[in-house]
What does this fold into?
Amino acid sequence: MLRIYGSANSRALRTIWMAAELGLQYEHEDWLPRSPETRTPEYRALNANGRVPTIDDDGFILSESMAINMYLAKKHNSPLYPADLQHEALCWQWSLWETDRLDRQIVTYVRHAAALPEAERKPAVAEAAWLEVAPAFDVLEAALTKSPWLAGPAFSVADLNVAGALYRALSIDVSKWPNLDAWLHRCWERPAAKHARSLREN
Ligand SMILES: N[C@@H](CCC(=O)N[C@@H](CS)C(=O)NCC(=O)O)C(=O)O
It folds into this structure.
């Protein structure tokens, strides 16, 4: 049995999205980041970072959301994990790129620009984050101008991982990047994405 540790209100959102794409049954430890459950020695034994998500797949323990999604898609022979070597490598490329260029930056930007209560927002922090987010959006826009999907001819784990990480971007105006905008909404319109999102927003 698969067990997913981490609330939809965390990076586990993308794991939950993938599990729904694959039609997997799973037990869900619906834990928020930094919650007491993630601070126990038992959880630290599964994930030494004390972070979410982590999965326990019949005793195989794996952390890092991008790796988890690639593992699950490949394990279940999903078309979301390309058979073509070069398309597969593009899934690694985009997942690693997102982690480096956007994962924290987009969260920091949206929190300090809009999501936090006004008194807690720091405009300078938002501005510094935006200086990293905007060029990364330019990179995505250029890629999505050449092809509707990031890794090959169809939606794949590359799109899921990057769009999943851009959940926060759904709440900001990205119309300056029209192909990114259309792709982001195309990805999040998928039934599995809507399901994951409903767990976060309801
Ligand atoms: N690179 C990791 C990041 C995991 C991560 O930072 N998770 C956050 C929640 S979204 C967390 O658990 N934070 C708790 C903490 O910082 O202690 C991944 O993608 O899985």
Summary: Residues 2-79 form a domain with the Glutaredoxin fold (CATH 3.40.30.10). The chain is about 55% helix and 10% strand.
